[in-house]
Amino acid sequence: MTDLLQKMRGDAAPLPAPHPVKNILLAGLGGFIAIAVLAGLADSLETVLIMGSFGASCVLVFGFPDAPFSQPRNVVAGHCISTLTGLVFLMFFGPVWWSVALAVCVAIMLMMASRTVHPPAGSNPVIVFLLQPGWDYLVFPTFTGALLLVLVALLYNNLSRSASYPKYW
After folding, report:
1. Radius of gyration (Cα) for the chain, nearest Å?
2. CA distance linking residue 89 with residue 101, whole number of Å
């Protein structure tokens, strides 16, 4: 028990270095532009293109675009795998507590096995269980919104930084 408590105290490592103000401003602007594009298109097309988890995706693709979790395949496939998993568990087992927990569990494992881990997508099964949408939720907003988010990230990150985005497909 004392070993567990000792581990919970942490390693006393120093905080990460602060981010340069320019990077902070560019990341915030990128998130604004991406969500504005999705919201504006959704409004004009009268369809749903935004999920709550897309806000967290913006943190990664604009704040940490070089991270493996931020690469396009991770964003699109991670969101689709997790939403599909949530829909399958909802449809087959219903909106019960153990089903949503199992859906999150399976979504994590599938993303890890397919090398498409995108942490914000881990919330998609929970979102599915809260909204209880139909199968079309996989296309609108999940796939279409994630794809548009990546397209904005491709343009914005390559215009605003000297490094290229993505690191891999």
Report:
1. 18
2. 10
Over the stretch 19-41, which tens digit does the pLDDT of each residue have? 999 999 999 999 999 999 999 99
In a domain, 100, yes or no: yes
Domain membership flag for residue 165:
no
Residue 1 has pLDDT above 90, yes or no: no
Query: What would the pLDDT profile of 109-154 be if each residue is shown by its tens digit?
Result: 999 999 999 999 999 999 999 999 999 999 999 999 999 999 999 9
Give the list of residues 6+ apart from residue 55 with CB closer than 8 angstroms, or none.
31, 35, 120
Domain hosting 96: range is 20-160
Dig out the tokens for 116 from the structure: 């498409």
Cα 108 from Cα 84, distance rounded (Å): 12
Q: Does the global pTM surpass 0.90?
A: yes
Task: Please name the residues in contact with 143: beta carbons below 8 A apart, sequence gap of 6 or more.
Answer: 76, 79, 80
Domain-located, residue 166: no
